[in-house]
Amino acid sequence: TPKLTLMSEGGTQYMIVRSDMASATSAVTKLAVKMAGAFRDVSGQSIDVTTDYEKEDGPYEILVGKSDRPEYKEALASLTDDNGYVIRAVGDKIVIAAKRDAALTEAVERFLAECVGWRGEGDFDKKGEIRVDAALNIEGVWIDPEAVPDDGNPKVLFGLSQQQADTYFADILDGLFTGDTQETIKVRDMGAEFRMHFPDIIY
């Protein structure tokens, strides 16, 4: 499987690119700095953080959050959920895109854990080379913690919030989500059938 070498023992050609419009205290700026620190922890090598104000001078960019780069715009347009995110290799670029800061945070954390080998301060895999699949394409949906009731069971069905689910299946779901756990599990197990019958609204 073809690979992209994000970091080698001799350093990197890559840069982490964030929006020039993001302030120094913004979520995306903090995430970009966090990523650079993770690369350094894992490889012992530095990776620069820059902004999209700088003219694109090569393909070796890790785009995090909003950007004027066409690869970001294409990735963002592919998201069908407001809480969705994508981590994608586009040519030699890595694009981490999301519509919301919370989703972007989860995407960056997932990228660092699954692709870089950094799971948190003091919890990482030390290695000289960081490589990812050239066909990298990870998609996910951030789950709003406010959608989780006191019993700890998310009020989410196949990516839909409780509010969205109630809109589409009010008569059915009203009873199921307030009923016993076994009934709720049965509904979740019927995911494939729901997707078949409601392809436009189950995602």
The ordered H/E elements are: EEHEEHEEHEEEEEEHHH
In the sheet with the most strands, the strands line up as 3-2-4-6-5-10
Radius of gyration (CA) equals: 20 Å
Note the beta-strand portion. Answer: 15-25%
Explain what this protein looks like in three dimensions:
The chain has 203 residues and is α/β, with parallel strands linked by helices. Helix content is 36%, strand content 24%. It has 6 helices and 12 strands. A 6-stranded mixed sheet has the order 3-2-4-6-5-10, with helices on both faces. The protein is globular, with a radius of gyration of 20 Å. The C terminus is likely disordered.
Topology:
Elements lengths: L2 E5 L7 E4 L8 H17 L4 E4 L9 E4 L5 H8 L6 E7 L2 E6 L2 H16 L1 E3 L2 E2 L5 E4 L3 E5 L14 E2 L2 E2 H17 L2 H9 L1 H7 L6
Parallel strand pairs: 2-3, 2-4, 4-6
Antiparallel strand pairs: 1-9, 5-6, 5-10, 7-8, 11-12
Helix pairs in contact: 1-3
Name a few traits of the molecule.
alpha/beta; two-stranded antiparallel ribbon; 6 helices; 203 residues; six-stranded mixed β-sheet; single chain
Short overview:
The protein has 203 residues and is α/β, with parallel strands linked by helices. 36% of the residues lie in helices and 24% in strands.
